[in-house]
């Protein structure tokens, strides 16, 4: 992963029983299918749009509500079967505030280990709404819990996703 300050990031991982190229495709092409719904995970209170990655490296990660498009972030690295990195922001972020998500797809016995690191939180001030009123280990645990739930959802077997 990156050289991120361990106090500035959360790390989670999951295992999927498909090869890395297919795991990358499932993660990116089917993001709306596995990404959980609800205010805890989506980007507009009371509304659920369609999540999608657009355009590979240099493209965007968005939630489309039909009448509005929210840009979650910009795709920094797009290396199918290996590495995806994108900036990430919540609605509570100012336009110049972003964090970074790195996702690695590593071959493992009969499948792929997917490792996710979300860093850059130290750039947000202590009272920032995205911090949920928490700091230090409590804040990292809250963010880590969200990503862990998403990784569990991603790691669940899907029809047609077997080797």
Quaternary structure state of the chains depicted? single chain
Total number of distinct structural domains: 1
- Tell the overall outline: globular
At CATH level 2, the architecture is: 2-Layer Sandwich
Taking Cα atoms only, what radius of gyration do you get, to the nearest Å?
A: 15 Å
Name of the CATH class: Alpha Beta
Q: Could you give the distance between the termini?
A: 27 Å
Q: Give the DSSP E fraction (strand runs of 2 or more residues).
A: 25-35%
Low-confidence stretches: 159-163
The CATH topology annotation reads as Alpha-D-Glucose-1,6-Bisphosphate, Chain A, domain 4
Q: Count of helical segments? A: 3
The helix content is 10-25%
- CATH homologous group name: START domain
Report mean pLDDT, rounded to a whole number. Answer: 87
The strand line-up of the biggest sheet is: 1-7-6-5-4-3-2
Description:
- With about 160 residues, the chain is an alpha+beta fold.
- It has a single domain (about 5-155), classed as Alpha-D-Glucose-1,6-Bisphosphate, Chain A, domain 4 (2-Layer Sandwich), CATH 3.30.530.20.
- Helix content is about 20%, strand content about 35%.
- Strands 1-7-6-5-4-3-2 form a seven-stranded antiparallel beta sheet, with helices on one face.
Give a topology summary.
Blueprint: E1 9-16, H1 20-29, H2 31-34, E2 50-54, E3 60-64, E4 69-79, E5 83-88, E6 99-108, E7 111-119, H3 136-155
Antiparallel strand pairs: 1-7, 2-3, 3-4, 4-5, 5-6, 6-7
Which terms would index this structure?
163 residues, alpha+beta, Alpha-D-Glucose-1,6-Bisphosphate, Chain A, domain 4, seven-stranded antiparallel beta sheet, 3 helices
């Amino acid at each position: 992963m990156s050289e991120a300050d361990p106090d500035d990031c959360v790390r989670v991982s999951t295992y999927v029983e498909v090869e890395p190229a297919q795991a990358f495709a499932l993660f990116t092409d089917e993001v709306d299918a596995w990404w959980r719904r609800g205010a805890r995970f989506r980007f507009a209170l009371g509304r659920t749009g369609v999540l999608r990655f657009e355009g590979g490296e240099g493209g965007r990660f968005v939630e489309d509500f039909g009448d509005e498009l929210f840009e979650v972030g910009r795709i920094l690295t797009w290396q199918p079967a290996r590495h995806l990195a994108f900036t990430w922001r919540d609605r509570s972020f100012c336009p110049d505030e972003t964090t970074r998500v790195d996702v690695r797809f590593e071959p493992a016995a009969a499948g792929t280990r997917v490792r996710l690191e979300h860093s850059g939180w130290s750039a947000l001030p202590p009272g920032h709404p995205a911090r949920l009123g928490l700091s230090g280990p409590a804040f990292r645990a809250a963010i880590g819990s969200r990503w862990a739930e998403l990784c569990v959802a991603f790691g669940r077997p899907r029809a047609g996703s077997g080797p």
